[in-house]
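The following block was generated as part of the benchmark described in Methods. Ligand: iron/sulfur cluster.
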Amino acid sequence: MDAPVLRQREKLAGHIIKNLAKRKMAGSFVPTAQEARAEVLRLIGLAGSGAGPARVIRCGSESVGGLGLWADIAALPGVTLMDPYAPGLTREQGAELRRQGLLADILVASSNAITLDGRLVNLDGTGNRVAGMTFGPRKVILLVGMNKVAADVEGAMGRVRAIAAPANNMRLAEAYGLKNPCLEDGRCHQCASETRICNVWSIIEGSAVRDRIHVVLVGEDLGY
Ligand code: SF4
């Protein structure tokens, strides 16, 4: 990444982290994806230390998965990864693990968008990810590339509809037999398709428990 762009992103991240703190959420900035990987593992270590084995629930995230982080998390001493995507699980077993994941110790995911004033905007298919972000796991760690920053909530929702939701359709189409109009032209039609994956909007304005949510902002683009 060009040095001036990285400097701009670092300054912007500092602004967002201050606004997260006003909303009782924590934040940190790392320039690269590799440093993000180390930061997430460090935060899991802190959240789990002294409290016995920590159960970490895996949520659908290209940002986390793209870094190969799930294998790193599963290999951490004292950590059990609850993985609904593990090979060999039936759809029902995966759904049950997602349900159990609402009582995990730590949730690791990304956010579809983050606003300059520190709000987290997400759109889910089943809702388990946004449910766990909201309540249940004692610690929520979100890995968010600076490509997901939007000026405000309207911009964030626009970003999710224009980029994240159609791209997630492309990712999941084959595995889930999706037949949604965005698969044809790459645009969201706000459809009412039987296989629609855009069901639950969530806007997190703040956290009741200070620093329960920690957002790791990454200078490099991550996910979509
Ligand atoms: S609402 Fe429908 S058209 Fe829009 S992204 Fe979701 S599945 Fe695709």
